[in-house]
């Protein structure tokens, strides 16, 4: 498993019955479909697809075959995110924003709403079901600059702004501004380094799924969250009229 800026690796086999795919988008999805069709468990890097429709196809096939389709989401396993979630829990959100900036992406990572699905997963995990009210996209091809701004709403119509900004040499930063009733959070809380690596935590969770240690209810919640985020990403891309 690699961070989003890392080189996508060829397919790697873990055993006869489960493996992880690392292919660019079209071959990526095709390889996943091939493995699922063969009745194999699949562990795939996020986002599993660069369109909502392709992701639904993968999940439908996995369920039909009765196999595990696991999408890696190490961003939810980081210690700083766990601490942030504790800070947010039980608070009444009034409005908020999440602004991510980073270097240019290599070709094949898709539109910013998909390549930045980790940040969207944060927002959905923290604040529940979201909807897209508006989205814009700015690009300066000569400067290698791109910026996506999405306006989101929580289920009780509280506004959230999500920004993804990319350019070669741009420092990697993640800024938050969450306003709650009587409390404002403007920095991600510091947290001590975990004793178990993120990728190992993810593999342990994948293994737990394979051995039946994860409840059907938890699996369903995870599938709903993943498809919800990919559906939001698709809506944002459509609003920005980016193909």
From TrEMBL:
Q: Which UniProt keywords apply?
A: Coiled coil
What domain of life does the UniProt record list for this protein's source?
Eukaryota
Q: Where is this region: Disordered?
A: 1-23
Q: Which InterPro entries match?
A: Biliverdin_Rdtase_cat, Gfo/Idh/MocA-like_OxRdtase_N, Gfo/Idh/MocA_Oxidoreductases, NAD(P)-bd_dom_sf
GO BP annotation list: heme catabolic process
Q: Which residues form a coiled coil?
A: 67-94
Residue ranges occupied by any Biliverdin reductase catalytic domain in the UniProt entry: 81-192
Q: Name one GO molecular function term.
A: biliverdin reductase [NAD(P)H] activity
Q: Which residues form the Gfo/Idh/MocA-like oxidoreductase N-terminal domain?
A: 32-73
Question: What Pfam families does this protein's entry cite?
Answer: Biliv-reduc_cat, GFO_IDH_MocA
Q: Could you identify this protein by its name?
A: Uncharacterized protein
Q: Which organism is it from?
A: Xiphophorus couchianus
């Amino acid at each position: 498993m690699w961070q989003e800026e890392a080189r996508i690796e060829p397919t790697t086999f873990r055993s006869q019955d489960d493996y992880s795919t690392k292919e660019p988008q079209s071959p990526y999805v095709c390889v996943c479909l091939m493995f699922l069709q063969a009745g194999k468990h699949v562990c795939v890097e996020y986002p599993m697809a660069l369109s909502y429709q392709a992701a639904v196809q993968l999940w439908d096939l996995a369920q039909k075959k009765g196999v595990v389709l696991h999408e890696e989401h190490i961003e939810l396993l980081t210690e700083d995110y766990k601490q942030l979630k504790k800070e947010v829990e039980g608070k009444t959100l009034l409005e908020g924003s999440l602004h991510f900036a980073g270097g240019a992406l290599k070709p094949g990572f898709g539109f910013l709403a998909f390549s930045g699905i980790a940040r969207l997963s944060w927002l959905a995990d923290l604040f529940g079901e979201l909807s897209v009210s508006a989205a814009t996209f700015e690009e300066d091809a000569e400067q290698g600059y791109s910026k996506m701004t999405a306006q989101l709403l929580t289920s009780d119509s509280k506004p959230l702004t999500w920004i993804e900004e990319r350019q070669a040499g741009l420092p990697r930063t993640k800024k938050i501004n969450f306003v709650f009733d009587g409390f404002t959070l403007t920095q991600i809380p510091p947290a001590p380094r975990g004793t178990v690596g993120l990728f190992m935590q993810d593999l342990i969770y994948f293994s737990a799924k394979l051995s039946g240690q994860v409840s059907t209810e938890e699996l369903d919640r995870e599938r709903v969250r993943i498809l919800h985020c990919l559906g939001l990403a698709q809506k944002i891309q459509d609003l920005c009229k980016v193909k």
